[in-house]
């Protein structure tokens, strides 16, 4: 096998060492995996930011508790995954499925209430909890990869599970929201956000 069937899956885990272009990590199964970084590898790091930095036009994925009675989602986690509709939609996932989450474009903000138009055209009110965590992707580099950091890697794997990295996400894993949270070019997507976070706290 040439391993390219694993291209989309890649690997994820915690960095144990970085020696030149070779990264060794322990994956979620406790196995040691070698990741090779090349000159074409792109890096994204996830930062924590203030909910006040969410702007109209941002594409977000909100996760929390959905109320069908008033069509609101009380969100404890929000990820900004693009701006100006740059991210592809995953639709929504409400009661009856495994999670309560939705993705769409922010069209209005009033206090802690966000009006979001989902990718099926349905409006949704997202109420942001005071303790909600908000994350956004920005461009990173190999210098951000240090021992103990969590990373998610995309790229072809060989028969041993070792990966040639096409894309590496450093820090909080946005992947729990669905495939679109990691899709596209992290550098271009980060550049489209149009703001500089006030405080950067790496996960």
Short description:
This protein is an all-beta fold and 203 residues long. Helix content is 3%, strand content 48%.
User: How would you describe the shape?
Assistant: elongated
Secondary structure: helix percent: under 10%
Instruction: Write down the overall mean pLDDT.
Output: 75
- Find the structural class using helix and strand composition: mainly beta
Q: Which parts are unreliable, with pLDDT below 50 for 5 consecutive residues or more?
A: 1-8, 85-98, 173-203
The succession of helices and strands, N to C, reads EEEEEEEEEEEEEHE
Largest beta sheet, briefly? 5 strands, mixed, barrel
Question: Which strands sit side by side, in order, in the main sheet?
Answer: 5-6-10-9-8
Structure description:
With 203 residues, the protein is an all-beta fold. The protein is built from one helix and 14 strands; from the N terminus they run βββββββββββββαβ. The radius of gyration is 18 Å and the shape is elongated. The termini are far apart.
């Amino acid at each position: 096998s040439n391993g390219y069937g694993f291209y989309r899956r890649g690997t994820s885990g915690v960095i144990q060492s970085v020696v030149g272009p070779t990264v060794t990590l322990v994956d979620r199964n406790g196995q040691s995996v070698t990741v090779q970084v090349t000159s074409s590898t792109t890096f994204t790091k996830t930062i924590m930011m203030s909910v006040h930095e969410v702007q109209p036009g941002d594409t977000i994925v909100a996760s929390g508790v959905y109320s069908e009675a008033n069509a609101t989602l009380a969100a404890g986690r929000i990820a900004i995954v693009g701006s100006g509709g740059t991210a592809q939609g995953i639709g929504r996932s409400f009661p009856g499925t495994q999670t309560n989450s939705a993705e769409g474009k922010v069209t209005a903000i009033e206090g802690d209430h966000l009006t979001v138009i989902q990718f099926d055209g349905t409006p949704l009110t997202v109420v942001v909890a005071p303790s909600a965590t908000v994350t956004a992707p920005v461009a990173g580099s190999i210098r951000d990869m240090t021992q103990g950091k969590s990373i998610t890697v995309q790229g072809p794997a060989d028969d041993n599970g070792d990966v040639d990295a096409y894309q590496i996400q450093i820090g909080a894993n946005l992947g729990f929201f669905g495939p679109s949270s990691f899709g596209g070019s992290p550098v271009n997507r980060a550049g489209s956000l149009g703001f500089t976070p006030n405080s950067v706290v790496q996960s």
